[in-house]
Amino acid sequence: MRFRSRLPLILLTLLALQPRAFAQDAPAPASPPTTAFVDVNVLPMDGERERVLRHQTVIVRNGRIAAIAPVGRRLPVPAGARVVEGGGSAWLLPGLADMHNHVDRTPDLQVQLSQGITTMLNMGEARNSFVGRTRAAVERGEIDGPRIFAALAVDGSPQYGHLVVNDADTARAATTIARANGYDFIKVYNNLSPAAFAALVVESKARGLPIVGHGITAVGLARQLEAGQAMVAHAEEFFYTFFPTPPGDDPNAAPDPARIADAIATLRRSGAYVVADLVTYRTIAAQWGQPEVVRDFLCAPQTRWLWPGYRLSWPEQGYARRSGSLQARAAFLARFVKAMDAAGIPLLSGTDAPDIPGLVPGFALQRNLHDLVAAGLTPYRALLTATARPGAFIARSQPGGTPFGIVSVGARADLLLVAANPLQNLDTLAQPRGVMTGGRWHDAAALQQSLQRIAADYGRALPGPVCGSEGTQ
Length: 473
Description:
The protein is of the alpha/beta class.
């Protein structure tokens, strides 16, 4: 994202809201109990075509899916198992994944869980304690939240606040640091030099740290993808280092649609994934030169679950002070994403939340799925970007782990239970009857209790109106 202007969040009064460090010698919690989902309609998400398994029993044991069978067949519920009744009307599908966000606070993890998100990829600037300790605490079940993957962001200058890697030597050192600190990916940013990028390609491959990220101005996406970059972090990166610079006086003019075929051909040769974060660019376009739009964002009900630091910093971000319009590019981007999906380019859902004003963790991913459908994807193909596609991407880039993103025997039990068929109404995803992460079950009551507690904590930290000079939530 080329427009970001990061602001320091100087809010000493909020220190009490930071998660406490967990003792490294804390005892591991007991394994989650066996769970049986009885008489549910299963959306496996395990292929290119829609497939529904109606009236199924699904057994989860030791954090994995152990058995799936129709209710009419003999699949005994294990003695002592927790039973979740579907009543023939509930729908079970894989948990959702946000494959580009900047979440690194415990309450945000719980908010995401309430929205059915069971996997996330932090794409840079996470606090060391989050990557090194909070993530492990989530995996042990000490903190409720999605499974966490993390990328170390590197750039060739301090312009955007990332770790500076300004030559081949520091690039090699960065991969050593990333591996030692448990990062899963290297995220490349706009100002890297060709020499630094070339060194990152060699060293990251040797250390098992796939490259993801932006288009690099001095390299260009075509060369990056040819070199093996595994994922483009925003679909809109093609504006900056792939499509030709717009002619004329409008620097934000949309590219020629005829050039979409060139981008698709390059992506096909590389096999790279693309984060189709339509919600991100659409939200930036909405506030571009429009300060009142940012004030409206702060009046949205979901800002009750936005960390108060962002409530104060969102109005100070630079997008609302820009001139011109991004609407033509936003429309082009939707067309580009639809064309990529039709061509079989593997797309991932992501949001960039909460760094972009207007994007609240968890809620933003729900909006992105709707934006993908508005762009012309079917609901099933939109759901693929947040279920099976993330699972396939992680399996390819982090081999050896338990499969996820599908409802299949042997897969990790990251599951979402909803009241209605999401292929007919995506809104049902935002009000889950329960969410399972690695076999740990969180019913609707527990999810709502977490939301109520977080809203109350944030309200005490920053009392009073948060949506400008008038009105309250």
